[in-house]
Amino acid sequence: MTGDHETRTVGGLPTPGDGGSRLPAALTRAVWLLWVVSLGVSAVWLRRGGPQVSAGPVAVDGLTVLMWTVVAFFGGIVHSYSRRYMAGERDANGFFGRVFAFTLIVMVLVAADAFLLFWAAWLAMGLVMAGLIGHGDWPQAQAAGALARRYFLASGALLAAGLVALWRHTGATTVSGVGGAVGSDPSTVVLAAAGTLLLAAMTQSALVPFHGWLLSSMTAPTPASALMHAGFVNAGGILLVRFAPVVTVDTRVMLAIVIVGAAGALTGKLLKSVRTDVKGALGCSTVGQMGFMIMQAGLGFFAAAVTHFLLHGFYKAYQFLASGSRVAHEHPAKSDPGSTGVAGAAVGVATAVAGAGLFVVLTGKGSGNGLLLAGLVGLTVLHAARDVTARPSLPGTVRYGAVPLVALPAVAVYGGVYRAVEGLLVGLPAVGTTATEPTAVHVLVAVAFLAAYLVVEIGVHRRSRRLYVTLLNAGRPPSWTTLTSTEEYDEY
Predict the structure, then answer these.
(1) What is the pLDDT of residues 73-90, one digit of tens each?
(2) What string of DSSP letters covers 54-77?
(3) Distance, C-alpha 475 to centroid of its chain
(4) pTM beyond 0.70
């Protein structure tokens, strides 16, 4: 056969300066300039003492200046990374146009005060992200984009229903005015509006059972995935913070938020435990992290929810942009963790207790539902400690000494960022409201988190074939959105 010995020559990768379109470079400079302007606006706002500044359909407050700075920074990183990643791509200009438009739309969303503008930005944000998910000529990518678009249109419809209900019931037409209009009125209309707002937040943040669009989006270019997991999914948290006066009007709504958030956090953790592909595992991790964010809002700790999605955004953006380096080139048995041993378990437990205590000291959340939050921080530290102490390749002094030296400063950073965010959110309606005293639901949530931790750590999900297959199927995206053959995308 004549083709068997054909020599193929692959040229060097195109570089951003190879004489292509100037649009990517121009948009990259523009978004970094936008970040500099955001820093300036934030400095002026802080110097003036931080009052809310309203100008027609928009309002600038602490959440606005914080999100402007962070969103523009993420946009700059993704633009800069994409100049190399998308070099030579047929529709690179279209990709950069969507990424830049997405950055602008999110900045409009976090400043929008008028109901109509908020809804328009919410819908536009979803449609642009669906376009990024469906970027490329692969049928699977286009199918994933179409699936995401249906989810986002449904989310927009739910948000519209909630806003219309609030307008008809209270007469309010702005986000800043809805708090005073709702007051402490837990009427049927307000509760229904709170329910639709929660569903819209769950859909956009990919909480169970609306996580299908996120798990189907792995065909998206890596920079788009970074933007999606670091920014887009945070929209649910922003929605709940902005409409805190509505969702805090009744303790039953807050309990519902805690339940759906906990369900998402636990499900994401379990789904991640059976995924073997890097991007799939990161996607399941995002489902869990967004569930935890929503749950914190349900506990009444809105500043903690904002802190969580900010820090998660930085972490997940790095994880996706560096996902190629995480592919292991060794036999799986070489990376299997060993046993922590008695010394490792003691170090882990002691560090977890110290981390939870440090969090309480730094944030002052040492009573009521704050204890649940502190307990979850300790459980997270314990999980991270186990990953380090169970590595037999590391010397004992490194395994046991590194745990407190890394974990406790990390908790301190989290606590410091939390207090800073809490200061920025002062003055936002109902954001300082906390849930009622712990109930049986909160106790069950705490028990569920502990049980899920034990299931994963002991390996029950791997020893039970039925549970393993159930989790594997639950985390599998539709087949028509998945590339299953390298011939479908590998030209060579």
Answers:
(1) 999 999 999 988 887 778
(2) EETTEEE-HHHHHHHHHHHHHHHH
(3) 17
(4) yes
